[in-house]
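Hi Y.,

Following your request, here is the sequence exactly as I used it, all 428 residues.
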Amino acid sequence: MVVIFLLIGIGMDGVFLLLSSWSRSESVSRDLVTRMSVTYSDAAVSLTITQLTNILSFIVGAAVPGFPCVEIFCVYAASGLIFCYLWTITVFGAFLALSGHWEHSNRHSLLMTKVQSKSVAEANSSSWLYKLFFVGGIDPADPSNAKDNKEEKMMAFFRNVIAPILNHNPFKALILLFFVLYLGMSVLGIYHMKEGLQLSNLAMEDSHVIPHYEINNRYFRDFTYRLQVVLPEEIDYQDERIQEQLVQMLSTLESSKYISNNTNFRQFWLTEFLEVAKENFILFDITTKESFMTNLKIFMEEIHNFTISADVKFNEEGTKVTSSRLFLQTERIEDSQVELKMLLSLRELASKLPFKVILFHPLFFIFDQFAEVFYQTVTCVCLCVAIMSVIILLFIPSKICVIWVVFAVISVEVGVLGMMSYFGINLD
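Below is the corresponding structure, written out as tokens. Let me know if you'd prefer a different format.
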């Protein structure tokens, strides 16, 4: 849906360039072929630069490895803009030529009926309503009549009024002052910009999920996430040295400021089994590997109705534990910024453990985005600036022009990113 609005907006930009050139071409000649030639030669470079930079920018977004949803969006946007460019210079050009025929024969642009020129309508004292809706073109008896050949008022206004005002030194100084303030605010906004996806933005505006996330963020940020710690490989859990390492692993993870060290929140089948075996050492002999596995299976069958019964995976013969898991509880997690720090910190701790450990929560795939978005943004912006510089240099071979274009693009990017923080929008 967003691509549709982009295509309409960018397509209108190309249409405006052609219509603006078409309007100016009338001062050169009234011959249709000449006007079309002047229009295309005048607008072609601007139109091509605009569309080509847009297309290549989206191609960069599709080519840079990252999020599949962004890649898909960029592929469709780039494809649509290619067709938009081709249709503008071909199909729209054809309609522009037809429009030129109607214009030269003094026909109404919508009704196709013959209309009077402004000078003829005034001479005939036509009604104001007729003059407003049914007057146009050039008087064939007086093609040079100024009343019939006025340029667009808005274009004349900007050329004759705005441009001279902007050329006065006090206004130049004022503009530079505002620009410096704009850049300063933008840089300050980037410094305070937050990363992280707000989950409520993934739902429709009238979704019942949004109040849930809002209330959850407001009142339930303590002990927010129940984390699975998965041991996906075969381990000799009967070995006392391994048991000590696993207990040390628990202590290491619970030493993190993001994990609660309250043992009541811990759920680890091994510690519970060892406690039962210690209390019932006569019934639960775990001195050998075979007896350890036998009694572990009995223990798991006895507690079948409890949660930890699903935390151990045996091989087909039941002689080994091929994988297992335990659960830990997080402390207070304020926002998405802390979620990102938590994810990176816990993964760093896990990488230093003597076992292969996978930390999992259903929302971790979203937290993963937080770690990548900033670098993806910087990479894409740099590539887009480089591509635009090359295109400008090819079409307008002026080093000074390239420098100013690059500066303008960077200032726009800084402004967009900087102002996001003032509107409470995260980089996501």
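The chain is about 60% helix and 5% strand.

Thanks again,
Q.
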